[in-house]
Specification:
mainly alpha, two-stranded parallel ribbon, 20 helices, 5-stranded parallel β-sheet
Length: 474
Amino acid sequence: MDKRTRKDLEKLANLTSIEKDVLKGLYGDMFGSTAGKNKKSSSLSDRLSEKEESAAELLDKARQKRPDPLSDARKALKEAQDLMSRTEEIAQGVEDANRKRLDELARMTSEMDKLQQAGIPGQAARGAGGNDESIAAATGGPEGKEEEVKPQEPETDPMEELESLVGLTTIKADVKELMAFVKIQKMRSDAGLKSVPVSLHLVFTGNPGTGKTTVARIISRLYKQIGVLSKGQLVEVDRSGLVAGYVGQTALKTQEQIKKAMGGVLFIDEAYALAQKDDAFGQEAIDTVLKAMEDHRDDLVVIVAGYTKPMEKFINSNPGLKSRFNKYIEFPDYTIDELEAIFYRNCQKYDYIVEEEAKKQIRARIIGRKMMRQENFANAREVRNMFEDIITNQARRVAAMENPTHDDMMLITVMDLSDDIGDKTDTKELEKMEEAAKEVRITQLELGESEKGSEPEESAEPEEDAIEQENTEE
């Protein structure tokens, strides 16, 4: 406020005071002070001489009671700046603490790696470099435990795994013979001797569930073990994994699967589905696989599998297939005893025990399924499905108990063999079915021998022809 305005306000205040005095003299104390009536009124000159607060002083007092908004804003801004400064200091402290934790984690990890390389077990390494809790704290939480590399289980010997399979006696003999031959040829080649060209590609024939995929996986590891493959993985595909829905895309899709199988085995299940009549897509996939077998003969093995008769037609449908697949392995159906052994092996693997009364019923069910599904019986796959159904029923029964014991959770009873509790198979029917199964088996053997007698004996000449053809192609 400027000086002129201040003076005008002071004059106005004085005039107002004089006006009050004049009105008081004319009309009494109505416009005067609130003092008592007996009090002598002072003269006008005395009133004018009295010191009263000016308007400027009153304005200053008002400002003191109500501070300037601009001053308040400046004060708030300063407080916000101070708070931001403290926040930056806190963030810097957190960042420094995290960096320190990461440095500590890197140090402990380095020490653990050194101890493990020196042959000290993981537990001792944790004791030397810190425990699980310290690692979790260094990473900021329990998630650090998930990043620990767990030691891999020792890989079993593939030949021992082959021997442990139920049945497959002829298959085991064929695989051992093949591996011995391939191994010696590899050793001869490494020693600088001439080796007989041998096709590593195989044809597996037989019904579903006879162990074709399992044996293919074992053979892939055996090939790696003797040094003819670099990785030994198995890539399993069928028609849907090789054939695309558009022209020109099948070759690309097949090449992707071949790339995954490089260094290992490409296992084509139901391969005969690729050789259907007027099927350009399937033929494109076959041609792509044949080219890869030729281009990568040193580090790619192809195994084709399927039903016996369709696979024979498949191989004979293409001269290139017939020349490259000259080793056949036939997978016979499992016997009743072998299927029963597969069932109990699953029980042992998953800690189940079967009571004696239920064992007879399980055998009856295996025989019944095999007899009723002569054409489409899935062998080991059928037994696995039956095992899963039984343990599902057992879980339903045990879950209804109030306090099931350890033995209750392991035991399979007759009640668990069917969704309908108490459903049983007559043991007399079991005996009849077993006798019928034996008769069917004997008849099949007799028919097989008669067919063999009518066909000319096979000689080793086809294999020699295949060897000569391989030499010609090379």
